[in-house]
TrEMBL record:
It is a multi-pass membrane protein. GO terms for biological process: lipopolysaccharide transport; polysaccharide transport. The keyword Transmembrane applies. The chain crosses the membrane at residues 29-54, 60-81, 102-129, 135-159, 171-189, 227-245. Belongs to the ABC-2 integral membrane protein family. GO terms for cellular component: ATP-binding cassette (ABC) transporter complex. This is Transport permease protein. Keywords: Capsule biogenesis/degradation, Cell membrane, Membrane, Polysaccharide transport, Sugar transport, Transmembrane, Transmembrane helix, Transport. The keyword Transmembrane helix applies. Coiled coil: none annotated. GO terms for molecular function: ABC-type transporter activity. PANTHER family: CAPSULE POLYSACCHARIDE EXPORT INNER-MEMBRANE PROTEIN CTRC (PTHR30413:SF10), INNER MEMBRANE TRANSPORT PERMEASE (PTHR30413).
Length: 256
């Protein structure tokens, strides 16, 4: 099926993503506005804790937070929801005409749409703090592609493993929390002691989220070599996730 899954099942993915977005805030009074309110409330909380209480040294700190927090919300939400997509979509499993690999892709694409819809909040903060957008914005679609491919591979693998190993989804929640605090999203990379900084710098996810910060906060162009390396890694993870999904899918019916 490979990367053509997005083309071959484009209409089905579109329908499922649209249903996901419509149902996300169904029944709530504020509805769509939670797309802005959720990250805004998180930003205010982290600004008080890290910016005021812990005195993190970063000018225009709300912009610094939001530039990394918005893609992180996409990453963590898609990962957690995608890992349970096969279990929650059990009614589709076993139907020969339904392509089950699209199920873990729905949270990835819905999360990307939600991320793009929340960007006006970040752009508004850029105006408030008078931070200009530079040529780095040209690299923004590349970062979107990298994150989408990376998440697609991870969610396909994790959703398949969760069927056989039910502890996967519980363990994943803790891993996501640890990753969040281990990455320089709430604090700049320079805040990490030099003797430990190399550990963080060699984390591929740090390169991804730092790329967003370079574009929207620092006004820089991300390193093309790093982007190329991340793209190669994302493609490898995508195919690895698809391979894992195909291998595990043969026993889905036995465990659901």
């Amino acid at each position: 099926m490979r990367l053509t899954i997005f083309r071959d099942y484009g209409w089905l993915l579109y329908s499922l993503v649209l249903r996901d977005l419509r149902g996300r805030y169904k029944g709530s009074v504020l509805g769509f506005f939670w797309t802005f309110l959720n990250p805004l409330l998180l930003m205010l909380t982290y600004s008080i804790v890290f910016g005021y209480f812990l005195q993190v040294n970063a000018p225009a700190y709300p912009v610094f937070i939001l530039s990394g927090l918005l893609p992180w919300i996409w990453f963590s939400t898609a990962l957690l929801q995608g890992s349970t997509s096969i279990l929650e979509g059990a009614s589709y499993v076993g139907k020969t005409i339904f392509p089950t690999p699209v199920l873990p892709l729905v949270p990835v694409l819905a999360g990307m749409v939600n991320y793009l819809l929340s960007l006006p909040l970040l752009l508004l903060l850029l105006l408030v703090f008078r931070l200009p957008l530079g040529w780095g914005l040209v690299c923004f679609p590349v970062l979107l592609l990298i994150q989408a491919l990376l998440l697609s591979g991870l969610t396909m693998a994790l959703s398949a493993l969760s069927v056989t190993f039910r502890d996967t989804q519980h363990l994943l929640g803790h891993i996501v929390t640890i990753l969040f605090f281990m990455m320089p999203i709430m604090y700049p990379l320079t805040a990490i002691p030099e003797r430990a900084r190399w550990i963080v710098e060699h984390n591929p996810l740090v390169g991804l989220f730092y790329g967003y910060q370079q574009i929207f906060y620092y006004g820089e162009v991300p390193d093309p070599r790093r982007l190329l390396w991340l793209l190669v890694l994302a493609v490898a993870v995508f195919y690895g996730g698809q391979f894992t999904f195909n291998r595990q899918s043969e026993s889905f019916a036995e465990h659901i």
